[in-house]
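Co-fold these.
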Amino acid sequence: MKNTLIIAAAAAMFISSCKDAETPQPENESELITTVRLDLVNQSDTTDVSTFYFRDNDGPGGLDPLQWDTVRLAAGTTYDLTIALLDESTLPNGDISAEVEEEGTDHQLFFNIDPASLLAVDYNDSDDNGDPVGLVNVATTSSTGAGTLTVILKHQPGIKDGNQNTGETDVEVEFVLEVL
Amino acid sequence: MKYLFFILWVLPVCVQAQHDSCRLKLSGYVLDKQSHEALAFASVYLSQSETGTITDLEGHFELNDLCPGDADLVISHLGCQSRTFRVQLTGDTAYTFHLEHDSRELNEVVVTEHREAYTGSLPTSSISSVRLQAISGKPLGTMLKEVPGVWTLQTGPSIAKPMIHGLHSNRVLIVQDGVRQEGQQWGSEHAPEIDPYTAGEITLIQGAAGVRYGSDAIGGVILVQPPPYPTDTAVHGSISLAAFSNSLGGSGATRWSGQSKKLPAMQWRATGSYRMGGDAATPNYRLANTAFRENNLSGAVKWSKAAWQTELGYSRFSTDLGILSASHIGNLTDLEIALQADTPLILRDFSYSIQAPYQHIVHQVIRSFSTFRTGDIGHLDLNIAYQDNHRQEYDLHRMSDGGPALDLSIGTALAEAEWKHRSFMHTNGSIGISAMNQQNVWTGRFFIPNFISNTAGVFWMENWVSLPWKAEAGVRYDVRKLRSFRNDGEAITETTRNFSHLSWSGGIGWQQERLSLSFNSGSAWRSPSINELYAAGLHHGAAALEYGDPDLQIETSWQNSLSAKWESARLQIDLGAYVNLMDGFIYLEPQAPPALTIAGAFPVFAYKQTNARLTGMDAKISYTLFREFSLEAGAAVLRAWDITNNDWIIQMPSDRLTGGFHWHFHDGRDQGWDISAGITHILEQSRVPDTEDYAPPPAAYTLVRMEAGSELHWGNKVVNWSLSADNLFNTAYRDYLDRYRYFADEPGRDISLHVFIPIQTKNKTS
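Predicted complex below.
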């Protein structure tokens, strides 16, 4: 019967080292990207500012995205394009773009435009290795038209080489793009 | 001395370490249990070699020229019926058998070291200690692949889960040292936390053995049994080493056991093992980040007295398993890119380093097993255990605190009491109760909720033998209360589900010297597991959204199995056929359309229930052509049909055919050699449901394996060694049951060397 006591004592020890099953932590506490914000400032008129959102505050699955804007830009214009990645599931909101910037050598944003003639996006930032990250860019429109702009963030630890087909996709949002 | 209660009691009195294959001697005495008088003219018959003898006037017998391995010994004496039981021959061995003289009753064998050995009518297979040496250093799931009817569900080369007759995870119970393994076994990429080096023998029960081992043993039970304790005062030890060419890895284990000189009632054993490997190699490239490391420790102390025995044990299993970098994908687009590529998109030079994504698991068990004599009518077994399973899964994405993305800690307390009555009217049986309490706590990213589960069961079974007939029947009732707790950030909600159901089993067998037939019919059930009920969210790395269904009902199974065995000097045939009808079979169904998220499109899966019919057949035939050269052939076939939806069931094994030879001979210096070769052909799985899979099932493939082994005389020691080559022709292939099939080939040729060094210290007087 001594064994039983030893086991009971050991079990008590193990159990007490655990957190209590009856008081779970909140389910949405972990790091999440809920929001992609595109900020566009017209280089020739800095008061001409446009902001476009993709918002899915409960993360993947669950409810459908809250906001999914159409990106409307003026033809023949050059914009400063910055990307903000936010976690709006918690308060205060998490600023994921700051983390991406910090870990710039592991991340890169890619912009796929279809048709390509609608918009040209040129990187205007760099990581510690001098490679682009894509948080700060210059976007130039020429003629009018409609299509799509897909914003992709790849996590490429140790394999970042400008190839958008490797690594894990953190963000992939397809916006409807209209150049008016 | 009324040492134990049943009629036959086995005591290995002396084990000499003298490995000379097929030159082994088995000798001993047959004595009357009460009077200790010699029993003359008792018949001792060994079914494997079809040799037998009769005890002399001193009750002594001797059998010579036996091969190592399992020996089924049939002992009978005047007025008693013969009874088969199993001993393990690893060297020259002497046993003393105590027969209780009671002509009214059938002889019953209690081999306490093999207390979990199964005697029912379901088909069983076992891997002997000799065989375990030859395949040492591999994970449990891979080892079990040798058994017909057993497949493995894999996540790359290092994560392997056994699959019996198409069922796995929560439907297959693993019982180690008498304790059912409890962790996060619901996950298909969660390998069993078992160190095969602790096993003296591994026995597999195929079918619903739920009555004895717990209702959820629908697919079968894997019994991992420790080797017997020595009964002399010498310290027995061994060192087992293995090296593998494919992963440039290796393993080492050491086992020690002994009996206290000062306290003869005390026996002990200890095992330590270490396994490691680097990135596995396919014929064309390395699998980046598939390195692993595993270290294990276990020990037990047993105390025996006339009226009781008690054993206290502890084991710790710890592993780090790298996950193939290329298999960790972000969304459907990533998957499509990966599927279109012939080679994994992430390659690296060979490395032993384990980087994210990886799993870190620690499993600890503390257990006690006691048996008490209850007068002359029976004995009571008491089994108590606590196990703690801590699983940490690290994603490519570091969490902000640097911790694991998924952290699950589950503690399980188990207690079981079983009273076995002594043989009465040719019948043995037992009644028992069992109880289990489980608590799960998660941190990191949500996938399954915290829960507290309480299970209680009561069972009764009886086993009647009057050769050539035997019959058995058993019944069990279990109740389970599952309380789960969720926190949406504002309030904690508690959900309670109650489950209860009956399990039963009945069987009949007929056995003659060469032919034995048995039929078993049984029903088992399980309650839906925590992920099937409440999983909600991203299965990270698998790029899938999984949703449980909180209203799922229990899954019941009714199985009928028939097995036939023929054993003669030259020919051995083992046939098994089964039909498994499952009501409320729980499976993961792909949902349309994919979910659109900030990270792109994700496929959506939901747990559903259906009625299923699993039918199959396992066959194994071996024929001795001349002297010790035998040919073997085997087949395993399974058809898994969804009755409700009129379709095949996804992720079921395809048919498997095997063939090979085994040759045992002695060279000029009279050293024993074993040479064998085997060929395995896996057919393409053409029976898949119409629902979309990411990629069609891979093509059929054929693998060849060769083995050669012998012994080395090293001083006065005999060292056994064997060299084997898996996938000898370095075939590039993919397997339907491996999740990595979407991303990469299976490992190529693997040459491994296994060495077993027995160590025995002489009896010391200090």
